[in-house]
């Protein structure tokens, strides 16, 4: 029994470390955009200002993945030009001039508003130095037209009346890999956004478990404009939409993607875009996979959510799992061992941490002689939750999976996926 007690001690220590570490590590991409209007006159033949981008995340960012959009009305149908007077990058290598590497393009809005019919998109050429954590980019830009006629900035969406002061503007937008991460796009009053649900999709290249990869679009009077993956548009052969609005990604397209996580931007002729988070995996050569299903709950409703093990091909002697959830969205009330856990009173432990929004699961064979391993697929645990708000998604995500081993304490490879 000493071996079992040692395993429990290791598992509890690792779980505690995981919970503390999870509060310190942020994996999301965060960039702060500030705008300073240097052309404050309402009537002027030159619009523009300074843009500052600061990497506030712990990630290093490729500059070509960032795009800034400034929205305005052209007033007259004249050729538009962006002038970049200066652009500089301050990063881990010090100061670097990148003026010649700034790119721009002008696009007409497919659904113009009263204060925007055009935007200029400002980006950067590939191959530049990266924007390291706490690094900054500052650029000075101007917009003119071919006849140097005056613009009326009073009807421009991105115009800021405060001159020569950096502010966080909601009307100048920032995109990372095509996904809006700062600011708000202009929109017409009365437009009802299309709804795409669910937004979390996965596809397994393992033929034994793969199924349809689909989601529901409620168009609300809008039409589909494009679906883009990392800026590249999907062709009509990559997906299909039936008369009920079911969007299905074709297997040939999904098979062409490497394993990993993707963000697919679904845009419409009006209203907000939606971002589908797509996970591509291949469990063909994995020992087993853990799955969690999405569900739809209204505020106040309760549900019991199973976390399943699939493709169990070797006995599991021990496992240490930590999950995270949105504590503003759900309350985790109870965790019970599932049907496939032997001697659960001795071999299974769980703990709910409401203040952190996490819970951890520990399994260790009670006998440690190979007689009470997890040897079959099915429900490993059942989690009872109560919804605080309406939602349609997977209620929690895996934070860490450690110390998963067989009877000889050999590591077992595991994959977690949401269906």
Structural class: mainly beta
- The residue-averaged pLDDT reads 87
The CATH topology of the largest domain comes to Immunoglobulin-like
Strand line-up across the major sheet: 1-3-9-5-6
Classify the helix fraction into a percent range: under 10%
**Strand runs, count:** 32
Q: Give a short account of the largest sheet.
A: 5 strands, antiparallel
Q: Which CATH architecture of the largest domain?
A: Sandwich
Q: What would you report as the Rg, rounded to the nearest angstrom?
A: 26 Å
Say which CATH homologous superfamily of the largest domain is assigned. Endoglucanase-like
CATH class of the largest domain: Mainly Beta
Summed up, the helix count is 3
Head-to-tail CA distance between termini: 38 Å
Number of domains: 3
Q: List unreliable stretches of 5+ residues.
A: 1-28
Written overview of the protein:
The protein is elongated and about 85 Å long. It has 3 domains: 32-182, Immunoglobulin-like; 195-281, Immunoglobulins (Immunoglobulin-like), CATH 2.60.40.10; 286-418, Immunoglobulin-like (Sandwich). The protein has helices at 2-22, 251-256, 344-347, and strands at 31-37, 43-44, 47-55, 66-72, 80-91, 94-97, 102-113, 116-124, 136-145, 151-152, 172-176, 179-182, 195-197, 200-204, 214-218, 224-229, 232-233, 239-241, 246-249, 260-268, 274-281, 288-292, 295-297, 302-310, 318-325, 330-337, 348-353, 358-364, 378-387, 391-393, 396-405, 414-418. With 419 residues, the chain is mainly beta. Mean pLDDT is 87; it is low at 1-28. The strands form 8 sheets. It has a 5-stranded antiparallel sheet with strand order 1-3-9-5-6, with no helix packed on it. The protein has a 5-stranded antiparallel sheet with strand order 7-8-4-11-12, with no helix packed on it. It has a 5-stranded mixed sheet with strand order 14-21-20-16-17, with no helix packed on it. The longest helix is centred in the N-terminal third of the chain and has 21 residues, at 2-22.
């Amino acid at each position: 029994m000493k071996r079992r007690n040692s395993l429990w001690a290791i598992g509890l220590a690792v779980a505690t470390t995981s919970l503390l570490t999870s509060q310190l590590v942020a994996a999301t991409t965060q960039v702060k955009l500030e705008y300073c209007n240097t052309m404050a006159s309402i009537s002027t033949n030159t619009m523009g200002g300074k843009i500052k981008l600061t990497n506030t995340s712990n990630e290093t960012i490729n500059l070509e993945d960032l795009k800034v959009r400034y929205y305005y009305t052209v007033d007259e149908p004249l050729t538009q030009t962006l002038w970049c007077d200066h652009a500089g990058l301050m990063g881990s290598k010090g100061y670097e001039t990148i003026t010649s590497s700034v790119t721009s393009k002008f696009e007409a809005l497919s659904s113009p508003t009263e204060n925007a019919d055009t935007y200029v998109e400002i980006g950067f050429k590939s191959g530049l130095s990266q924007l390291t954590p706490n690094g900054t980019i500052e650029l000075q830009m101007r917009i003119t037209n071919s006849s140097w006629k005056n613009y009326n900035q009073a009807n421009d969406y991105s115009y800021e009346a405060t001159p020569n002061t950096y502010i966080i503007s909601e009307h100048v937008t920032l995109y990372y890999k095509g996904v809006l991460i700062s600011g708000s796009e202009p929109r017409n009053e009365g437009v009802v956004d299309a709804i795409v649900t669910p937004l979390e999709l996965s596809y397994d290249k393992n033929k034994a478990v793969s199924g349809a990869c689909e989601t529901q679009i409620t168009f609300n009077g809008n039409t589909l404009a494009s679906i883009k993956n990392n800026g590249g548009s999907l062709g009509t052969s990559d997906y299909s939409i039936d008369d009920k609005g079911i969007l299905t990604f074709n297997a040939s397209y999904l098979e062409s993607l490497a394993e990993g996580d993707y963000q697919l931007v679904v845009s419409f002729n009006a209203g907000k875009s939606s971002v589908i988070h797509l996970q591509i995996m291949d469990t063909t050569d994995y020992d087993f996979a853990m799955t969690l299903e999405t569900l739809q709950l209204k505020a106040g409703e309760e549900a019991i959510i199973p976390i399943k093990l699939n493709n169990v091909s070797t006995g599991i002697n021990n496992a240490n799992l930590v999950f995270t959830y949105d504590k503003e969205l759900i309350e985790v009330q109870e965790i019970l061992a599932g049907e496939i856990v032997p001697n659960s009173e001795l071999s299974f432990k769980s703990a709910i941490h409401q203040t952190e929004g996490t819970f951890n699961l520990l399994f260790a064979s009670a006998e440690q002689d190979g007689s009470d391993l997890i040897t079959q697929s099915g429900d490993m645990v059942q989690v009872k939750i109560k919804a605080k708000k309406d939602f349609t998604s997977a209620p929690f995500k895996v934070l860490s999976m450690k110390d998963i081993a067989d009877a000889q304490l050999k590591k077992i490879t595991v994959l977690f996926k949401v269906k």
